[in-house]
Amino acid sequence: MQDARPPFPLRLWHWTTARVLYTSAIIILILYLVRAARETFTLFLFAILFAYFLAPLVNRLEKPLRSRIAAIGAVYLLLAGVITGLIFLLAPTLSEQTRDLAVKLPELLNRASSGELLQAFAQKHHWPADRVNAIQSILQNHSDALSTIGADIGRSLAKPATHIWWLLLIPILAIFFLKDGEKIAANIGGIASDPEDRILINGLTADVNVMLGSYIRSQMILALLTLVAYSLVLSVLRVPYALILGPLAGFLEFIPVVGPAIAALCALLIPALAGYSHMLLLLAFIAIWRLLQDYVNAPRIMGKSLEINPLLQIFAVLAGGEIAGVVGALVSVPVAAILRIIWRRMHQNSRDQSSTSYRQSSIAQPAASD
């Protein structure tokens, strides 16, 4: 009997192999394009997140104004008014504190590295000499490493300043997502021809939409709470550069776990370098605020919008920061949540298909035996 199988090289090539290679090639191409145009993708991502933040207010005004365009315009006018008012109120003081910090920071860092600030602080709080000598020895032994870390942090924080023009483009792009976001989401499912694939894509889109909306609004509320709390309390305590540290803490609140820790460190180090004398009060406020924010405000405001383990959040933030700097750290947790949703939906779809196949085979077996 003649062997009907094809020759050996052709036996290695069948439809399963072709589909795997085709899918892998498509994924590699997409990843390459994303990396090549990462700045453009990041810009659009921030525009989408900004649109998610404004969407509830636009949806609420759409019915009384009888037009979505009018609702978007009203929201933007309100936002512009609030920003303009804050600029008129805070811009002079904030500008003065920024110039003062920029001038004095190099001098403060030199005094800190020389041990002069440590000696003055220890003398004021009556620290024993052996403790002061031990701390000064540690600082001197690791001065090069600390300088390198400080320079790296400074470069990372300064890098977003090169994209300051995004502050104009992001609201403009967000208008298109606010206007046509529902149509875009509805049309995503049309890329699939198979009905089951269309149901899967529509389910993924709905889950991501709910998660991102809840997460962005929750993070914005938590960031505003931190900004107001830091700015008010630090101003009342007469902490140097309070109007710089407050907005910085609010911005860093967007980076889960790692951001609040950096904000607390900055809020302690900068006043200490400037010779602030009530450090214990400042430390007590930061500790109380973190307990209130992490165990009272965040659970009530955010709820279960992410359902991501804190350890995974830390990993995502560190990996995102290493890949794309501050921008990567900002978007890493939502991206991780989206990947989790995709995995969960695909796994659920696979189980449903397996269950359907099992039921069909169970029905077919008795019919065949009859």
Descriptive overview:
With 370 residues, this protein is an all-alpha fold. 85% of the residues lie in helices and 0% in strands. The chain is built from 13 helices and no strands. The protein has helices at 8-11, 15-36, 38-65, 68-114, 116-124, 129-141, 143-158, 166-188, 195-236, 242-252, 258-273, 279-302, 310-369. The chain is globular. 14% of the residues are buried. The model has no long low-confidence stretch (mean pLDDT 76).
Provide a short characterization of the protein structure.
This protein is 85% helix and 0% strand. With 370 residues, it is mainly α.
Query: How many angstroms does the end-to-end distance come to?
Result: 36 Å
Which structural category fits the helices and strands?
mainly alpha
Shape: globular
The arrangement of helices and strands along the chain is HHHHHHHHHHHHH
Instruction: Please tell me the overall pLDDT.
Output: 76
Count of individual helical segments: 13
The count of DSSP E runs of length 2 or more, i.e. the number of strands, is 0
The low-pLDDT segments are none
Task: Note the beta-strand portion.
Answer: under 5%
- Tell me roughly what share of residues is in helical segments: over 70%
Query: Mind describing the biggest β-sheet?
Result: none
Radius of gyration: 28 Å
